[in-house]
Task: inverse folding
């Protein structure tokens, strides 16, 4: 078995679970947030800095690495872990979502997706077999089935046709996957915001007995309340002995609300992306450090944070760096944002251990969103 999920405890206040995901490159305490390292690097962070902040697992992308430098190059380096000098677990996404969000002139058929590279414009193709070939070459610990993430909003008929094809693609992935003992293949539940379609997708995929399941097709512009509703009726359809991964999520509130609803793994570009324009997450909400009011503010980004950035630098200095487009600026804000979300997940795990996740959520939201939610 490539991975083993150990369910340690279920919070008595909520449906949240405390777990341990055993992988060939180490153990992941769940619920866990996965920093996104799309091009084989978590932008602006070194692997040592990621270890220092206790990032347990990171995500990388099939689509991007297929285009550049090419999965054959990564395989020649001995795989993604060796190539990027990261010895902890890696999850790779399968490319479906990225093709739709990045490339032009794409065309879906039963075989897969033809598209033009967003870098060179050359015509390319990815389908289930190609997505398995690339991820097998990358050597990530967890690989994702090739799927279509239906847009939001989308007609029920479109979502239904899409999920049926995604299920057929999932079967082809299971057949094409060459290294099931070393790399765990997760199925991805689709079905948009339609309850009966979500149930159909979940039932078809759980019948194929994947080692883990992702919930896809969310965090694509739908209101958060709708996302939470979809989780309420989809998560219970997934086996509680397997890990559940909510793709593309998310903001602090969505991470906590997702954990409350039984999600074990999350990924999102938010902390790294907003850091690059000087937006930071603090225990009292977002702080846009480039704002003029911080020009002479010599306090840390977050007085309640003990990260490298908050122990050594001030808002005024970081504002100066960001305004000056200095590389250290986005390094310091990235370090802090990732540290903030990783600590948030650590606090969520502790709250589950103590059966008080609902209280933790209310206290955290009151501070972060400044109102009693
Ligand atoms: C930002 N929101 C978001 N929604 C996603 C849905 C899928 C999804 O439905 N399928 C796949 N394969 N990836 C998704 C991703 C990329 C996760 N890194 C999503 N990201």
Result:
């Amino acid at each position: 078995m490539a991975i083993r999920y150990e369910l340690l405890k279920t919070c008595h206040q909520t449906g949240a679970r405390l777990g341990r995901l055993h992988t060939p490159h180490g153990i992941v305490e769940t619920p866990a947030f996965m920093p996104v390292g799309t091009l084989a690097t978590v932008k602006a962070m070194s692997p040592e800095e990621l270890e220092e902040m206790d990032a347990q697992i990171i995500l990388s992308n099939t689509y991007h690495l297929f285009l550049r430098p090419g999965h054959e190059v990564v395989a020649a380096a001995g795989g993604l872990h060796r190539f990027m000098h990261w010895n902890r677990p890696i999850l790779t996404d399968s490319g479906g979502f990225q093709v739709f969000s990045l490339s032009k002139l794409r065309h879906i058929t039963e075989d897969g997706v033809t598209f033009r590279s967003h870098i060179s414009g050359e015509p390319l193709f990815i389908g289930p077999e190609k997505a398995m070939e690339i991820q097998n070459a990358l050597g990530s610990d967890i690989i994702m089935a090739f799927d279509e993430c239906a847009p939001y909003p989308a007609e029920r008929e479109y979502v239904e046709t899409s999920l049926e094809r995604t299920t057929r693609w999932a079967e082809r992935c299971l057949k094409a996957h060459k290294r099931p003992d070393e790399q765990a293949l997760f199925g991805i539940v689709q079905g948009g915001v339609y309850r009966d379609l979500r149930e159909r997708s979940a039932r078809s995929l759980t019948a194929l007995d994947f080692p883990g399941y992702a919930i896809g097709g969310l965090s694509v512009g739908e209101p958060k309340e709708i996302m939470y509703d979809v989780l309420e009726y989809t998560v219970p359809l997934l086996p509680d002995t397997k890990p559940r991964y909510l793709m593309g999520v998310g903001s602090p509130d969505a991470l906590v609300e997702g954990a409350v609803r039984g999600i074990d793994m999350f990924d999102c570009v938010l902390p790294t992306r907003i850091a690059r324009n000087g937006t930071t997450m603090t225990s009292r909400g977002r702080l846009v450090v480039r704002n003029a009011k911080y020009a002479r503010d010599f306090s840390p980004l977050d007085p309640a944070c003990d990260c490298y950035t908050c122990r050594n630098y001030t808002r005024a200095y970081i504002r100066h760096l960001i305004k000056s487009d200095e590389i250290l600026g986005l390094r310091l804000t990235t370090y802090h944002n990732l540290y903030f979300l990783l600590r948030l997940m650590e606090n969520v795990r502790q709250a589950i251990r103590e059966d008080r996740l609902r209280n933790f959520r209310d206290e955290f939201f009151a501070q972060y969103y400044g109102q009693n939610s």
In short: The two ends are 42 Å apart (CA to CA). The CA atoms of residues 66 and 183 lie 18 Å apart. The pocket of 2MQ is lined by residues 59, 93-94, 96-97, 144, 147, 149, 188, 216-220, 247-248, 267 (CB under 6 Å). The first helix runs from residue 47 to 52.
